[in-house]
Backbone:
């Protein structure tokens, strides 16, 4: 899932300034008066006003990414849903923004659905995911009138059918299929199937059995198929391979049942640049490979081209976001390393310890200075693995500096925790030189709101 993107060369003081880091920063980033600016706002001033740690996200970048997906998918075929994967970063404001851009929303729990409902998100544009939706989550989905539920198991299919029939409803569904293609960052692996907790494998005819059952069950309407081959994918041919496999399965479905797939959802997964060596594919190229690929495969087998859906998460929000911290202490351990400790850590970014993820760091108040040293950015938690960035080229740090970790817009806030009863940072959206809280910083009262005395 969160594999490091590209092989990492040994870290050296690379003399780079923030101006050299634009590939991993929001599109509005610039260096002015020696500071890092985002969206026309000085991030050092933002840190002073909003406090640290704080997640700062550039609204222009988020909207631009959504628009790019719409543009370069519908360029090849008009009937494509761009479905933002809310697990990457979700807030009520984010849901509203996705709605304003005309996109759909992937929710993967009742909690995420509750956010969409509170945002007034159009329910017909919701895709529901999850490999074990509880009966109450299924009821919440039916009662909300969600557009489509991606069914993941036989049990869930039976359960959903019964719940829909009880309510006199018919729910559109997709079936999640495991194509037996798993994407690695730079390549794909044919797994032959199927060691996955997700979806229906094609071995032993399970996926075909699921399709047949879905067609006959009352209360559900089989619309088509879903797949998701991985995340942080650089190699577009991984998508192309999986598309070949799934469209061939569409042909088998037509041959065996006479039913044509009306909606094909190829999931998310496009990689982004976390570090300078990373060179992800563009959304434009992705759109061509996926949408043209599906069209070509359908033509090959004489199938009608279905409506399509893509489900990007990371590539919408990752580079839109940075985390701003204040440097609190600096420990230079002679001949070993220098630790720069910040006022956050694994509670606001678990990806470093969980996946060995790598990030670029810079000092926002010294953005025009070269990164003259290598330091390890450590958090404030009681755990030696609490590292935010391992071996980061950095400007010369001093206590009180504002340390910016780049490309933290995806899967950081959404995977954050209250370890050590740390309050979670707030999230600000920046637009046209001003900022607003979209999620305020937690307080100690928030930490205790579920406590019983
Ligand atoms: N659709 C489905 C069904 C998914 O499971 C996911 C991500 C996406 C779409 C969005 O994929 P994306 O475009 O963001 O790659 N926590 C990990 C990532 C887990 C991704 C899980 N599924 C990380 O921090 O790298």
Residues:
């Amino acid at each position: 899932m969160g594999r490091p993107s590209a092989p990492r060369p040994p870290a050296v003081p690379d003399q780079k300034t923030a101006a050299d880091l634009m590939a991993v920063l929001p599109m509005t980033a610039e260096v002015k008066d020696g500071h890092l600016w985002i969206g026309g706002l000085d991030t050092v001033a933002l840190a002073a006003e909003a406090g640290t740690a704080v997640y700062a996200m550039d609204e222009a970048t988020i909207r631009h990414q959504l628009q790019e997906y719409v543009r370069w998918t519908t360029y090849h075929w008009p009937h494509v849903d761009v479905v933002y994967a809310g697990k990457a970063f979700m807030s009520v404001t984010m849901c509203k923004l996705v709605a304003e851009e005309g996109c759909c929303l992937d929710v993967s729990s009742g909690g995420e659905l509750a956010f969409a409902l509170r945002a007034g998100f159009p329910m017909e544009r919701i895709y529901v995911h999850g490999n074990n939706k509880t009966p109450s989550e299924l009821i919440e989905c039916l009662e909300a009138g969600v557009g489509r539920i991606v069914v993941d198991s036989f049990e869930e299919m039976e359960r959903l059918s019964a719940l829909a029939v009880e309510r006199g409803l018919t729910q559109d569904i997709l079936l999640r299929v495991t194509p037996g293609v798993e994407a690695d960052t730079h390549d794909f692996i044919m797994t032959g199937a199927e060691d996955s907790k997700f979806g229906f494998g094609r071995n032993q005819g399970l996926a075909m059995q699921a399709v047949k059952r879905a067609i006959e069950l009352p209360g559900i309407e089989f619309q088509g198929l879903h797949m998701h081959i991985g995340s942080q994918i650089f190699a577009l041919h991984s998508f192309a391979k999986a598309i070949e496999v799934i469209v061939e399965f569409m042909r088998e479905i037509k041959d065996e049942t006479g039913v044509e797939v009306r909606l094909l959802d190829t999931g998310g997964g496009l990689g982004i640049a976390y570090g300078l060596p990373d060179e992800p594919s563009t959304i434009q190229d992705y759109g061509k490979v996926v949408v043209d690929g599906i069209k070509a495969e359908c033509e090959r087998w004489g199938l009608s081209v279905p409506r399509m859906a893509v489900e990007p998460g990371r590539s919408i929000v990752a580079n839109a976001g940075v985390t701003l911290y204040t440097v609190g202490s600096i420990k230079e351990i002679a001949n070993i390393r220098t630790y720069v400790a910040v006022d956050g850590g694994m509670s606001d970014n678990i990806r470093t310890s969980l996946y060995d993820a790598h990030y670029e760091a810079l000092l926002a108040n010294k953005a025009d200075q070269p990164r003259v040293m290598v330091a390890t950015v450590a958090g404030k938690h009681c755990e030696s693995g609490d590292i935010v960035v391992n071996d980061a080229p950095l400007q010369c740090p001093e206590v009180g500096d504002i340390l910016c970790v780049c490309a933290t817009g995806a899967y950081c806030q959404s995977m954050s925790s209250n370890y050590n009863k740390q309050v979670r940072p707030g999230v600000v959206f920046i637009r046209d030189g001003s900022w607003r809280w979209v999620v305020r910083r937690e307080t100690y009262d928030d930490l205790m709101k579920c406590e019983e005395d």
Notes: The first helix runs from residue 43 to 50. The chain has a mean pLDDT of 95. The chain is about 30% helix and 25% strand. The CA atoms of residues 153 and 199 lie 6 Å apart.
